[in-house]
């Protein structure tokens, strides 16, 4: 049950991203599964995927049925699996970033505490740290921004690329 739910979340979010890219005419970035759909298949597929008023379980059932009706069960199952794997990888990556955040902050604090540095040198040191902590440093600055610019504090729902969830 848990697995099925997470598959749905994955498909929904991933397709949302894919679809907003499509709107911006970047069809080349779509997964092959979506790229291969006919216009009518695409429209019925996203009609289900983007429906915000049905449960994720219902969405999964409808998509499985849709795939059967379109003779795409095998491809859809593989696509679904790919999305699950992708989502798990993202989740693992997020956990990794969280695990390294404290260590990255120690390093950033050290640089900021070194008054012998010029602004240029400090920026260079931070850039250097980004090689070790490519996601962690920007994340720390993002967190800092929540306090320095409290208005950014309302960025709930902007986690999808293109922030499409804002428009719903
Ligand atoms: C997409 O279509 C191409 C060409 O027909 C096919 O080779 C490929 O396997 C399809 N990919 C998916 C994911 O359905
Ligand atoms: C469904 O796919 C199978 C195997 O690819 C094919 O033989 C069959 O003709 C397809 N049926 C329809 C209705 O497209
Ligand atoms: C699933 O991922 C594999 C490996 O990345 C890729 O070759 C395949 O086309 C994908 N299949 C679908 C249906 O998206
Ligand atoms: C997860 O992190 C690895 C290592 O940094 C990276 O290669 C991979 O692309 C990331 N996966 C995703 C889905 O972002
Ligand atoms: C975020 O906003 C809420 C109210 O909108 C405020 O009470 C809180 O102090 C803000 N948090 C930060 C870190 O600025």
Structure report:
Helices cover about 70% and strands about 0% of the residues. The chain is an all-alpha fold and about 170 residues long. It folds into two domains: about 1-90, no CATH class; about 95-165, no CATH class. It is elongated and about 70 Å long. Bound molecules: 2-acetamido-2-deoxy-beta-D-glucopyranose (5 copies). One 2-acetamido-2-deoxy-beta-D-glucopyranose (NAG) binds near residues 86, 90 and 93. One 2-acetamido-2-deoxy-beta-D-glucopyranose binds near residues 32, 33, 36 and 75.
Detail the topology: elements first, then pairings.
Elements: H1 2-23, H2 32-35, H3 39-49, H4 56-69, H5 73-113, H6 119-132, H7 136-148
Helix pairs in contact: 1-4, 1-5, 3-4, 4-5, 5-6, 5-7
Residues 86, 89-90, 93 line the site of one 2-acetamido-2-deoxy-beta-D-glucopyranose.
Descriptive keywords:
mainly alpha, disordered N terminus, binds 2-acetamido-2-deoxy-beta-D-glucopyranose, disordered C terminus, 2 domains, 168 residues, single chain
